[in-house]
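Aim 2 progress update. The chain analyzed this quarter is reproduced below.
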Amino acid sequence: MVRIADIAAELNVSRSLVSKVLNGRLGTSFVRPEVADAIRRKAGELGYRKNASAVALHKGRHQAFGVYMHRLGTAGSGIVEDLLAGIAFVASSQQQRMILEFFETEDACRALLKKTHGGLMDGLLVCGVTHPSLTADLLAM
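Predicted structure tokens:
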């Protein structure tokens, strides 16, 4: 995995400059256009990708949400697949990851909610068969 430090070392510039250029956060920092272009070009050549964990730590967001589903419809009807495909399409268009879990009973859902860690996802969508008795459990999260 290529790091900002690797790009900085290759170009003999500071890590903070590479970070600012790649994140579009130059602020009042001045950098010659040819240096900024060289940084972007080198990042592309080396296959640099942002570290998702570092971004999440910095932003306080994980770009992920949970989908907990109690299956609905007749098996083979495609209703679950269509619903999940729609959710996944929108998630992808917003650069979000989807964490999918299925449950069959209210107790199984409660068990999922207990193991749900806010440090892994920014939100939760519970769908499928409705369970009004789970409202208090969901609000307590």
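The first strand starts at residue 64 and ends at 70. The chain has a mean pLDDT of 85. These observations will guide the mutagenesis experiments scheduled for the next reporting period.
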